[in-house]
Amino acid sequence: MSPLEAALAGIWLMLPALIPNSAAVLWGGGKPMDFGRSWRGERILGDGKTWRGFFGGALTGFAFGVIQIASSELFDFSDSWSHGNWPRALWIIGALAFGSMIGDSAGSFVKRRLGVGRGDKAPILDQYNFVIGAFVIVTIVHTHWLKFHYIDGNQIYGLIAFLVLVPLLHRGVNIIGYKMGKKDVPW
Ligand code: CTP
Ligand code: MG
Description:
two-stranded antiparallel sheet; 6 helices; 2 strands; elongated; binds magnesium ion
Protein backbone atom coordinates (compact mmCIF):
# COMPACT_ATOMS: atom_id res chain seq x y z
CA MET A 1 0.00 0.00 0.00
CA SER A 2 1.25 3.49 -0.84
CA PRO A 3 1.66 5.99 2.03
CA LEU A 4 -1.29 7.99 0.67
CA GLU A 5 -3.59 4.98 0.55
CA ALA A 6 -2.43 3.95 4.03
CA ALA A 7 -3.24 7.46 5.30
CA LEU A 8 -6.75 7.36 3.83
CA ALA A 9 -7.43 3.81 5.03
CA GLY A 10 -6.18 4.76 8.49
CA ILE A 11 -8.68 7.60 8.73
CA TRP A 12 -11.51 5.48 7.26
CA LEU A 13 -11.07 2.69 9.83
CA MET A 14 -11.00 5.17 12.72
CA LEU A 15 -14.29 6.85 11.78
CA PRO A 16 -16.27 4.82 14.39
CA ALA A 17 -13.99 6.44 17.02
CA LEU A 18 -13.95 9.87 15.39
CA ILE A 19 -17.70 10.29 14.89
CA PRO A 20 -18.89 9.80 18.52
CA ASN A 21 -17.01 12.84 19.77
CA SER A 22 -18.70 15.12 17.24
CA ALA A 23 -22.07 13.38 17.46
CA ALA A 24 -22.10 13.78 21.27
CA VAL A 25 -22.26 17.54 20.82
CA LEU A 26 -25.45 17.13 18.74
CA TRP A 27 -27.04 14.54 21.06
CA GLY A 28 -25.96 16.28 24.29
CA GLY A 29 -28.43 17.36 26.95
CA GLY A 30 -30.48 15.88 29.76
CA LYS A 31 -29.11 14.19 32.86
CA PRO A 32 -25.40 14.59 33.51
CA MET A 33 -23.57 11.26 33.88
CA ASP A 34 -22.46 12.18 37.41
CA PHE A 35 -26.06 13.21 38.32
CA GLY A 36 -24.68 16.52 39.56
CA ARG A 37 -22.53 14.87 42.22
CA SER A 38 -19.15 16.16 43.35
CA TRP A 39 -16.00 14.58 44.72
CA ARG A 40 -13.52 16.54 46.85
CA GLY A 41 -15.24 19.83 46.10
CA GLU A 42 -15.34 19.44 42.30
CA ARG A 43 -17.92 17.81 40.06
CA ILE A 44 -17.06 14.20 39.22
CA LEU A 45 -17.42 14.84 35.46
CA GLY A 46 -19.41 18.06 35.09
CA ASP A 47 -22.44 19.15 33.06
CA GLY A 48 -20.61 18.63 29.74
CA LYS A 49 -20.91 14.82 30.09
CA THR A 50 -24.51 13.61 29.70
CA TRP A 51 -25.95 10.12 29.23
CA ARG A 52 -27.61 11.19 26.02
CA GLY A 53 -24.32 12.50 24.70
CA PHE A 54 -22.49 9.32 25.75
CA PHE A 55 -24.87 6.79 24.21
CA GLY A 56 -26.00 9.00 21.33
CA GLY A 57 -22.38 9.60 20.39
CA ALA A 58 -21.19 6.00 20.83
CA LEU A 59 -24.18 4.48 19.01
CA THR A 60 -23.84 6.93 16.11
CA GLY A 61 -20.21 5.84 15.67
CA PHE A 62 -21.25 2.19 16.01
CA ALA A 63 -24.04 2.56 13.43
CA PHE A 64 -21.59 4.14 10.99
CA GLY A 65 -19.21 1.22 11.62
CA VAL A 66 -21.97 -1.29 10.80
CA ILE A 67 -22.47 0.45 7.45
CA GLN A 68 -18.71 0.27 6.87
CA ILE A 69 -18.59 -3.46 7.62
CA ALA A 70 -21.60 -4.14 5.39
CA SER A 71 -19.98 -2.17 2.54
CA SER A 72 -16.65 -3.93 2.92
CA GLU A 73 -18.38 -7.34 2.72
CA LEU A 74 -20.64 -6.30 -0.15
CA PHE A 75 -17.90 -4.72 -2.27
CA ASP A 76 -15.12 -7.03 -1.10
CA PHE A 77 -12.74 -4.38 0.29
CA SER A 78 -9.12 -5.41 0.83
CA ASP A 79 -8.02 -6.26 4.39
CA SER A 80 -6.40 -2.85 4.95
CA TRP A 81 -9.73 -1.12 4.29
CA SER A 82 -11.82 -3.47 6.40
CA HIS A 83 -12.50 -3.88 10.12
CA GLY A 84 -12.58 -7.63 9.45
CA ASN A 85 -15.38 -10.16 9.10
CA TRP A 86 -18.55 -10.38 11.16
CA PRO A 87 -18.78 -10.85 14.10
CA ARG A 88 -15.24 -9.85 15.05
CA ALA A 89 -15.55 -6.57 13.20
CA LEU A 90 -18.53 -5.64 15.38
CA TRP A 91 -16.34 -5.97 18.46
CA ILE A 92 -13.74 -3.72 16.85
CA ILE A 93 -16.15 -0.94 15.92
CA GLY A 94 -17.91 -1.28 19.29
CA ALA A 95 -14.55 -0.91 21.03
CA LEU A 96 -13.67 2.12 18.90
CA ALA A 97 -17.05 3.84 19.41
CA PHE A 98 -17.56 3.14 23.13
CA GLY A 99 -13.83 3.46 23.88
CA SER A 100 -13.98 6.90 22.32
CA MET A 101 -16.74 8.07 24.67
CA ILE A 102 -15.12 6.37 27.68
CA GLY A 103 -11.91 8.25 26.90
CA ASP A 104 -13.89 11.47 26.56
CA SER A 105 -15.47 10.95 30.01
CA ALA A 106 -12.13 9.98 31.53
CA GLY A 107 -10.66 13.19 30.09
CA SER A 108 -13.31 15.26 31.88
CA PHE A 109 -12.68 13.32 35.10
CA VAL A 110 -8.99 14.25 34.88
CA LYS A 111 -9.83 17.89 34.06
CA ARG A 112 -12.09 18.21 37.13
CA ARG A 113 -9.40 16.66 39.37
CA LEU A 114 -6.94 19.26 38.02
CA GLY A 115 -9.47 22.00 38.82
CA VAL A 116 -10.13 22.83 35.14
CA GLY A 117 -13.75 23.95 34.74
CA ARG A 118 -16.31 22.44 32.34
CA GLY A 119 -15.54 23.66 28.85
CA ASP A 120 -12.28 25.31 29.90
CA LYS A 121 -9.26 24.42 27.82
CA ALA A 122 -6.97 21.50 28.56
CA PRO A 123 -4.69 21.36 25.50
CA ILE A 124 -3.84 17.88 24.18
CA LEU A 125 -6.17 16.21 26.72
CA ASP A 126 -9.23 17.84 25.07
CA GLN A 127 -8.20 16.74 21.59
CA TYR A 128 -6.82 13.29 22.33
CA ASN A 129 -8.88 11.96 25.28
CA PHE A 130 -11.12 9.95 22.94
CA VAL A 131 -8.16 8.69 20.89
CA ILE A 132 -6.54 7.27 24.02
CA GLY A 133 -9.85 5.71 25.11
CA ALA A 134 -10.47 4.10 21.72
CA PHE A 135 -6.87 2.79 21.45
CA VAL A 136 -6.93 1.32 24.96
CA ILE A 137 -10.30 -0.41 24.59
CA VAL A 138 -9.63 -1.76 21.09
CA THR A 139 -6.29 -3.13 22.33
CA ILE A 140 -8.09 -4.93 25.17
CA VAL A 141 -10.71 -6.36 22.78
CA HIS A 142 -8.28 -7.30 20.01
CA THR A 143 -4.62 -6.89 20.86
CA HIS A 144 -3.19 -7.04 17.35
CA TRP A 145 -5.72 -4.87 15.55
CA LEU A 146 -3.91 -1.56 16.15
CA LYS A 147 -0.52 -3.04 15.31
CA PHE A 148 -1.73 -4.55 12.04
CA HIS A 149 -3.62 -1.44 10.88
CA TYR A 150 -1.56 1.42 12.33
CA ILE A 151 2.03 0.32 13.01
CA ASP A 152 3.15 -2.36 10.56
CA GLY A 153 4.67 -1.24 7.26
CA ASN A 154 3.23 1.83 5.57
CA GLN A 155 0.18 1.65 7.85
CA ILE A 156 2.12 3.98 10.16
CA TYR A 157 1.08 6.77 7.73
CA GLY A 158 -2.50 5.97 8.69
CA LEU A 159 -1.66 6.63 12.33
CA ILE A 160 0.12 9.89 11.50
CA ALA A 161 -2.72 11.10 9.24
CA PHE A 162 -5.31 10.28 11.90
CA LEU A 163 -3.36 12.01 14.70
CA VAL A 164 -2.91 15.14 12.56
CA LEU A 165 -6.58 15.22 11.53
CA VAL A 166 -7.93 14.93 15.09
CA PRO A 167 -7.15 18.44 16.42
CA LEU A 168 -8.26 20.06 13.14
CA LEU A 169 -11.58 18.26 13.19
CA HIS A 170 -12.01 18.90 16.91
CA ARG A 171 -11.67 22.62 16.33
CA GLY A 172 -14.04 22.63 13.36
CA VAL A 173 -16.76 20.67 15.12
CA ASN A 174 -16.57 22.81 18.25
CA ILE A 175 -17.05 25.97 16.20
CA ILE A 176 -20.16 24.39 14.62
CA GLY A 177 -21.41 23.30 18.09
CA TYR A 178 -20.92 26.86 19.36
CA LYS A 179 -22.82 28.38 16.43
CA MET A 180 -25.66 25.89 17.02
CA GLY A 181 -25.83 26.99 20.66
CA LYS A 182 -24.77 23.52 21.93
CA LYS A 183 -21.53 24.84 23.35
CA ASP A 184 -20.81 28.01 25.31
CA VAL A 185 -17.34 28.44 23.84
CA PRO A 186 -16.02 27.85 20.31
CA TRP A 187 -13.21 25.49 21.42
N1 CTP B 1 -21.56 16.10 25.39
C1 CTP B 1 -22.51 15.43 26.14
N2 CTP B 1 -22.21 14.21 26.70
C2 CTP B 1 -21.01 13.64 26.51
C3 CTP B 1 -20.02 14.31 25.75
C4 CTP B 1 -20.33 15.55 25.20
O1 CTP B 1 -23.63 15.92 26.32
N3 CTP B 1 -20.76 12.44 27.07
C5 CTP B 1 -21.92 17.41 24.79
C6 CTP B 1 -22.03 18.51 25.85
O2 CTP B 1 -23.04 19.40 25.43
C7 CTP B 1 -20.66 19.14 25.79
C8 CTP B 1 -20.35 19.08 24.31
O3 CTP B 1 -20.92 17.84 23.89
O4 CTP B 1 -20.65 20.46 26.28
C9 CTP B 1 -18.87 19.14 23.97
O5 CTP B 1 -18.17 18.08 24.57
P1 CTP B 1 -16.80 18.33 25.34
O6 CTP B 1 -15.98 19.37 24.67
O7 CTP B 1 -16.22 17.00 25.56
O8 CTP B 1 -17.33 18.87 26.77
P2 CTP B 1 -17.05 20.24 27.53
O9 CTP B 1 -18.36 20.96 27.65
O10 CTP B 1 -15.90 20.95 26.95
O11 CTP B 1 -16.71 19.75 28.99
P3 CTP B 1 -15.30 19.21 29.59
O12 CTP B 1 -14.58 20.39 30.15
O13 CTP B 1 -15.74 18.25 30.63
O14 CTP B 1 -14.56 18.55 28.48
MG1 MG C 1 -14.55 20.80 25.45
